[in-house]
Design goal:
- The protein is mostly helical.
- The protein has a single domain, classed as Putative excisionased domain DUF1233 (Multidrug-efflux Transporter Regulator, Chain: A, Domain 2), CATH 1.10.1660.
- The chain is about 50% helix and about 10% strand.
């Protein structure tokens, strides 16, 4: 019996990340920028979201090669020192 496998048009976050290979930060940035459509599954406040997979794939084909490398911002030395001081020093 033959099995037909198709890519879904809409997928939840975990499946969208696995199918497309983009990071969660990038997926949310694309949604906030209006590049990728996202829809609530129900009107309830805590319902999940689904993301449009063809929108992500289109961005990967057309825009991603020109987007440049994705670099995580490095903490500034004074921020890192104050964080360490608060953690180690505690309340004196």
């Amino acid at each position: 019996m033959p099995m037909i496998v198709e890519r879904p048009r809409w997928a939840k976050r975990d499946l969208a990340l696995k199918l497309t290979g983009v990071s969660e930060c990038m997926l949310l940035k694309l949604v906030n920028d209006g590049v990728v459509r996202a829809r609530k599954m129900d009107v309830r406040k805590k319902s999940g979201c689904v993301f449009c997979i063809p929108d992500v794939e289109e961005w990967l084909e057309n825009e991603a090669p020109h987007a440049g490398p994705f670099v995580l911002p490095q903490p500034q030395p004074e921020e890192e020192a104050s964080w360490r001081g608060n953690k180690e020093g505690g309340a004196e």
